[in-house]
Design brief:
Layout (H helix, E strand, L loop, with lengths): L1 H21 L3 H13 L7 H11 L2 H12 L1 H13 L6 H9 L6 H9 L11 H14 L28 E4 L19 E5 L4 E2 L8 E2 L10 E3 L4 E3 L35 E5 L2 E4 L4 E2 L8 E2 L18 H18 L11 H70 L2 H13 L3 H15 L5 H6 L5 H4 L9 H21 L5 H9 L11 E10 L5 E10 L4 E5 L6 H9 L5 E9 L13 E4 L11 H12 L6 H15 L19 H13 L5 E5 L7 H16 L3 E5 L5 H6 L2 E6 L3 E7 L3 H7 L10 H10 L15 H9 L5 H7 L22 H23 L13 H18 L1 H21 L9 H23 L3 H9 L4 H31 L5 H25 L2 H21 L4 H4 L2 H14 L7 H11 L6 H25 L4
Parallel strand pairs: 13-17, 13-18, 15-16, 16-17
Antiparallel strand pairs: 1-2, 3-4, 5-6, 7-8, 9-10, 11-12, 11-14, 18-19
Helix pairs in contact: 1-4, 1-5, 1-8, 1-37, 2-3, 4-7, 5-6, 9-10, 10-15, 10-29, 15-19, 18-19, 18-20, 18-28, 28-32, 29-30, 29-32, 30-32, 30-33, 30-34, 30-36, 32-33, 33-34, 33-36, 33-38, 36-38
Membrane topology: Multi-pass membrane protein
Keywords: ATP-binding, Membrane, Nucleotide-binding, Signal, Transmembrane, Transmembrane helix, Transport
Main location: membrane
Amino acid sequence: MALVAGQMVAAALLLLSAAAAMRADDVPRMFLQETTSDYDDGVGGTAGDQGAKTMAGSPIVAGVMNNRLKALTSSFAKAIGDQLDYCIKDTDKEWNTAFNFSKDTTFLTNCMKQTNGDLQQRVCTAAEMKFYFNSLIDAGEKIGEKNYVKPNKNCNLSSWIDGCEPGWACSVGKEQKINLQDAKDIPFRALDCQACCPGFFCPHGLTCMIPCPLGAYCPLSSLNKTTGICDPYNYQPPPGNPNHTCGGADNWADVVTTDDIFCPPGFYCPSTTQKLPCSSGFYCRKGSISPTRCYKKSSCPPNSANQDITIFGALLVVTKYQRSSSIFLGVHIHPQGIPGISLVASCLVLLIIYNFSGQILTNREKKQAKSREAAARYARETAQARERWKSARDVAKKAGMGLQSQLSRTFSRKKVVQTASKSGADGDGKKKNLTDMMRSLEDNPESDEGFNLEIGDKGTKKNMPKGKQMHSRSQIFKYAYGQIEKEKAMQQENHNLTFSGVISMAKDHDVSTRPVIEIAFKDLTLTLKGSKKKLLRSVTGKLRPGRVAAVMGPSGAGKTTFLSAIAGKATGCQTSGMVLINGKVEPIRAYKRIIGFVPQDDIVHGNLTVEENLWFNARCRLSADMSKADKVLVMERVIESLGLQAVRYSLVGTVEQRGISGGQRKRVNVGLEMVMEPSVLILDEPTSGLDSASSLLLLRALRREALEGVNISMVVHQPSYTLYRMFDDLILLAKGGMTVYHGPVKKVEEYFTGLGIVVPERVNPPDYYIDILEGIVKPSMSAGVNVKDLPLRWMLHNGYDVPRDMLQSNSGSESSSFRGSTDPACGGNGSSVAAEVWGNVRDIVGQKKDEYDYNKSTEDLSNRCTPGILRQYRYFLGRCGKQRLREARIQGVDYLILCLAGICLGTLAKVSDETFGALGYTYTVIAVSLLCKIGALRSFALDKIHYWRERASGMSSLAYFMSKDTIDHFNTIVKPIVYLSMFYFFNNPRSSIWENYVVLVALVYCVTGIGYTFAIFFQPGSAQLWSALLPVVLTLIATQQKNTFFADLCYTKWALEGFVIANAQNYSGVWLITRCGSLVQSGYDINDKALCIVVLIANGLVFRCVAFFCMVTFQKH
């Protein structure tokens, strides 16, 4: 089929080229005939013939003939557009490039001389070209007949003249007038048969001539006496006819069929009859009409078919070194030289950025640290001065009181008053100030008037800018650390946390007030929707603000489930009972912006510092109306209370990179929720993995939060006695999710003692109770209580309604309560496996639906306006940029692999003129798709668990996704540059580097979107497997199933087509037939280059939308 397509195209183009010859108007032809006939010297026409020869050799006549050949397009533009529009984009430009002989019409002049001005009588008519066209189509299916045409009027079995042989042509006669545009009748052409003129070709089986296109070399052939073949056209003269010599060219076809008339590589042909060798420093590809200058420092000896730039990668490195040296030494490098010097410069810039990216962040952090340390030092000195003044004030107060009592014993009150008035009249400023100060101290002992006078900073507070007016870093830090030092002093004064101390702290105007939330629940029961398994049963109680509640119990008691239900995060479950928020029936999801939930796992960004993690959460989750200074103050309070000052600039660390310790990481995990100033703070095992000192520090920080009215509840495993006594309330759960105790810690031992369960001496009470609930320790026989009866005893003790099955269990019957369900159809022996599987499926579906509803809930009762999407997008963008800068080495490895791939593919898959480099571009599509998808997987695969936490806290999913994609645009732009900097110069295609770059950018954008989808939807291992298999499979479909619906769905088809079209556009002239044949065989259209780019970008957008949908819909645990 490729051969048939090529020959169809060849026939069509031959038809058009013949039309170029027959496009002669009658006036020019008659002009030539009249001129030659009028020239007569009276000697029997001999002078006329001589005049004809003279006029035929005139350059003016050759120019007229050239104009006739170029006039083809205007006459056949519509036919060309209808038949060859898939391979010829601009008909005028392409045909002018192929048949514009105005630069050198020597071959036309010589041909006119050779034919005695009979050139027009030897050019094929439309009918002959139509016949030739049909013959090529019919012969294309027959092997061995591709160079023959059907028998016709001039060449058949009964009449086979010399003009029918390849390379020969005949004339219709000088006196015979023919219509060259006649497409019906083939003229009789059998006169004056001779060899085809140089610069023309004469097909086998026809007796007319066709001009060779530019880029061809069509000289007269010569007989090779050894082989008997006419070189270089590989045809034999007819045997038995010694007068029939070798003629001219015989065929113009695609380069696969025959390349006889193509200008050979290493030479260039400025005209179709001239062949010149390439000189040193130039290279000439096959079919060249002019030499191409080689790049400097590349190897181009004489007769080079291509430039040798396999050492260009090394030259890039050398050039980088030279340019960097010239910057420091003042050496000027000539602007010409290695191509893409801007590319080298950009690579140098990228190299500097990625080598020193960590240093840039480090220097920035050092500057911030200096400013912060200066502010902290100033705040400490100010606080110390304040304390010194207070001490001096107390001493002065005591001295003044002693002096007053002594004077009262010596003098009367009247004399004392007179003395005082006299001293006041004397105008002694110091005594007056001292007296006024003493009276002020007596009236207001807490006044700081004397302090302001002492340090010479009078009016500082009055003139100090407010939070929203602070813009400089030093102002913000001074404000924050000043407030912290003041709060430390207050805590020191109220270290015993008495009731009066709490009230005094609460009344201080600097302590922020938060919305108070009280959570009450009655008969709270959670049941899985599918399997009907009960996770919590009849839990009743209340969580009050300003108190710290500990949730304890054995494994499987439902502690985490209970806290998830309180936070509104219990998904996949059917909830019964009543939950009241501040005494009202309101959904807890409406308060998610002021509810902090600390998961059990330490979900912290390891490639950010401690401060960066906390600051990001503070900016995104605190009120948008809060000033930056106040947000910094909140963050500094948390860092101070959690004891993270020493590691604030340290990276948290990942599995590959060592960071802070495990205890510090746990405290950072808690701090992420504390910085958003929650009203409800729920923690899932925050002390697990911490030593006693770290646990004590954490719990003290939580108690400070409780002083501000925060409702805190936490799951705790085996707390020490010291920690246990710091809790206000205790919630003790038994297996099956039933309450054993819910009340103050101070009364828990009293309650269990009433049941006959007494804690032995030197035994931690919570450990003892959990051992009893676990069954490790049995209650004493004198207690008269069973472990299974403890939930019932608690319900009866508080007067709660007792479920019927629990009463039956108490009477001695076998209860199913501890098996988790009262429904005999759930978990019974009679239940089928199919029913169990169906129940599990319903659990999963219900869980996904609840997760989606929770994250998409729009009702907000928290009265906190967090930053909008655009501001969060800016915050996410800054965070993601820092993370990528710290991952510079990983990016460098990606770029190195791309460079190596470009070198290998560019070297192994050289450009083939027959396929326009399709093989190398196929490998490029596969390699770039694979490498860029693997790189895109890191954007989301490693951060999914962080996203789930941030999304549950109310952060914008769109801002998160867009920030990741925006940062990846850097790779979308740079990776094609990195790859082409090697592949293009090793492969050296005819298309420009810009044309390849545009297609490659669209390809990288497309596969990046696909990588996002894989990273979000699949697990990391499966995502990598799909990323490796998909480009290979789609490429096979696109190349093997051409022109099918499935091929059009493959992005690799559009990428490959874009590359091939970009390269094929640079093949013109003699390559037209090859171009059209290759494009029709591949099913490509030269006009679809823009469509290919649009389709690739559209695919990238569609897959990004799919990835975003999967991100907000599917949540895998």
